[in-house]
Amino acid sequence: MKKKIISVLLSAAMAMSLLAGCGGDSGSGTSGTSGTSGNSSANAESGESNSKYEEFITVDVFDGQANYQGIQSGWFAKIVKDKFNMELNIIAPNVAGGGDTLFQTRSAAGDLGDLILTNADGGRLQNLITAGLVMDMTDLLADAENIHRYDTALESVASLVEEDGIYAVPSEVSSSAPTEAGESLEPTFGPYVRWDAYKAVGYPEIKDLDGLLDVLKQMQEAVPTSDSGKQTYALSFFKDWDGNMMNNAKQPTCYYGYDELGFVLAKADGSDYQDITDSDSMYMEVLEFFYKANQMGLVDPESTTQNYDTMYSKYQDGQILFSFWPWLGQAAYNTPDHKAEGKGFMLADIDNMQIFSYGCIPNGNAKNCIMIGSKAEDPQRLADFIDWLYSPEGIMASASQTGSTCGPEGLTWEMKDGQPVLTEFGKSALGGEDVSVPDEWGGGSWKDGVSALNYTAVNKKDVNPDTGIVYDYTLWDSVLAENNTALDLDWQEQMGATTTMEYLVNNDKIIVAPGSGFAAPEEDSQITTLRGQCKATVVDTSWQMIFAANDDEFASLQKSMQDTLEGLDYQTVLDYDMDLAKQQNDARIAVVEEYEAEHGADAADAGADAADSTSAVSDSSAAE
């Protein structure tokens, strides 16, 4: 019924807009034609703006995923200025101490932001509506042809609240099957090592995490100093993203098919659920792995005090030899020059790994949505901006070093013989080099101009309707043809595969969790209070365990954590999270069945090339 009401509202709003003669073009960015994607280039060359918005405004953007705070600068800022005559002032909880403090403070003041990027699940969207902090965008998005390509996703998020209307637009929407891996050439997680150091010690077999420690120690001895002469470390940590647990300690659990939900580690196929505080849990195994690494001198001693940016600079210098994610080590260090020298981060195989992969999400990801604040100065302009983010031009322009879109046409890429290819500037910028952007494109460095929103509107594996080719430039034929550097060729020879995903699929080393877009319900206030107390104990003690002086202290700290949590009624929160984890698995089963009903079983099976997880999910559900 909710879907029917939303569809009626959308149709009515669009009809009224047409009767009123309100056009959505004139620089609003709603056009899906290739002519639109050329606007920013033309503006850049002329230095003029064709924006239909006369008054310049500053837009406060509350962004729960941003890792930068302040005014957006550089080339992305110029595009936004040229098209919308506005600038983005990013307000980032991650930078302002983390947690929900900033969210609560601004909410209490009655003005969270003009644009709001946060989660809609857990009752948050309903609370924002009830508190009058976000507005209904139905009429504002009436002409938003890009957004309305994804009406099913809009309806999915709308079902989370009592009110009729469009209050949030979900991220990561996709037209692909939920059983298809959402990643492209590289998974989200994986054991990435400095391949040149790994080569230097003879490419030894890595049987398990303990075996990885031995190899990392050999690598540190083989490459004892960074490019600037500083001591190297295998591992470096940061606290910015800690939540229910130590974020860095969760990452290696993903190498074995797990992902977090509260205090639970849930297997992608629904076959296992673990309490992270159990002595035999994968989380505790990783803490012990980190502890042993520190005892071996492999852990960066500044880990307890540094932030993500500080740590990132160490990767750029070649000071850290292991990366939890491809989009950290490769983005920081795999420059064209380094790759030509055979240096850079590449996936290493662990015998018993099976890496967790997020499936594509036809209904979008409710864990990160974009909304318009109720006190926004010019809501129609912001609605036009949101629609532009979902346009081919906006998707490409929202480039990041981690998102596999490459920026604006004419600067980083161009069309040749009907195919998209990177420009020489694009090859350098996307290869991690510190390159300067031409003044006509906004000046400054490429890295500083990247969109600070950190927002993935549409899955990058979707097809760009303007080009007929996927958005993800790493999948372009022209780019794949150039994966022939000394680094690439050596890795390919050793691994027997052309790309990382090919290796993982061919060797049954990846497991896909179907993309359901599962949205947890609002949490009871008692659970929230207990969770806050419990997670502080888990996170603080986890860090202490890693840097424990000896085995006895490590064991004592673990026991202290467990005893303290028992006194804080941790079990109540754990039971709640366990139930949610199983609901999430049910949602994964349901979305596969829904997709098969709409597109046919063959379509869903075709999307499961990355891993045949559907049957595993169904089997585990039956076992429940």
Features:
624 residues; alpha+beta; D-Maltodextrin-Binding Protein, domain 2; 2 domains; six-stranded mixed beta sheet
Q: How would you describe this protein?
A:
- The strands form six sheets. Strands 2-3-1-4-13-5 form a six-stranded mixed sheet.
- The protein has two domains: 249 residues, 3-Layer(aba) Sandwich (D-Maltodextrin-Binding Protein, domain 2), CATH 3.40.190.10; 349 residues, 3-Layer(aba) Sandwich (D-Maltodextrin-Binding Protein, domain 2), CATH 3.40.190.10.
- The protein is of the alpha+beta class.
- The radius of gyration is 24 Å and the shape is globular.
- 51% of the residues are buried.
- A hairpin with a 5-residue loop joins strand 8 and strand 9.
